[in-house]
Design a protein that fits this description.
4-stranded mixed β-sheet, alpha/beta, elongated, 8 strands
Length: about 250
């Protein structure tokens, strides 16, 4: 087969094998002669130029599906459902509530309408290399290491963009802060997050008892009454009698 096709090979440094295969197939198809119907670029040359296995390139060029595509009908979730699940995982990770593999599997079972086995999340991770498993760390340590000028500036850039985009008035803008009083020691957990997420922290209380005090201030100068959240089964009516700031309390 002729192989006198001339072209400029793109930079392949940051491309994975599948991306290189697609580029090679595209060049082979572009080299097809309108008179003979044959490609000028051979499989042999393309596999060398694009650094991909020759047999794999030949199979894919001739229409053989990938292993993932061939088993697509066996998957429990549709592509759209998996895309939604991926975005949900990333959003929780950035909000300080990273999700474990078992929690993600339980949610996938809800989406699929049937129970999904414990080995499903491994195949799910293979299909989505933009996710990774990392150990969480305490929120206080994360705050200490991430309180820097670039991070703070990035936060306010995002904040200003949202205010401008949705035209949010001051009376609808609140700042909330919480103070946790921890009883016992928490532990790290393996969580699945966005591959690009640097710090993985968790505000969940793990196996420790946690009393949380929440304060909320509005941008217009007003403030909500504090809220105290703690574990308990019954309300102590006497607590409200010694409550000068009128704080609300919630049992959980």
């Amino acid at each position: 087969m002729p192989s006198n096709w001339d072209y400029i090979i793109p930079d392949l440094t940051d491309l994975n094998q599948e991306e290189r295969i697609q580029l090679a197939i595209g060049e082979i198809r572009r080299s097809i002669s309108t008179s003979t119907g044959l490609p000028s670029l051979s499989i042999r040359r393309a596999h060398r130029d694009f650094d991909v296995p020759k047999s794999t390139l030949s199979d894919r060029y001739n229409g053989t599906p990938t292993r993932q595509e061939s088993h697509h009908h066996e998957r429990r979730l549709t592509n759209a459902q998996e895309d939604v699940l991926v975005q949900w995982i990333k959003a929780h990770g950035r909000r300080g509530v990273p999700l474990s593999a078992s929690t993600i599997t339980d949610h996938a079972s809800i989406l699929a309408g049937e129970q999904i086995g414990p080995s499903w999340h491994g195949r799910f991770m293979e299909r989505h290399p933009d996710l990774k498993t990392r150990w969480t760390r305490g929120l206080e340590k994360c705050r200490a290491t991430n309180l820097n000028r670039p991070t703070v500036n990035n936060f306010y850039d995002i904040y200003d963009d949202l205010i401008t985009k949705y035209n949010i008035p001051q009376e609808n803008i609140y700042n909330m802060d919480e103070k946790g009083v921890q009883l016992g020691v928490g532990k790290r957990v393996a969580a699945i997050v966005d591959r690009d997420q640097k710090a993985v922290y968790s505000v969940e209380d793990g196996d420790r008892e946690l009393v949380t005090i929440i304060e909320t201030v509005c941008a217009d100068g007003t403030a909500l009454k504090p809220t105290v959240i703690f574990q308990g089964k019954r309300t102590n009516l006497g607590w409200a009698n010694d409550n000068p700031c009128g704080a609300r309390y919630i049992l959980c």
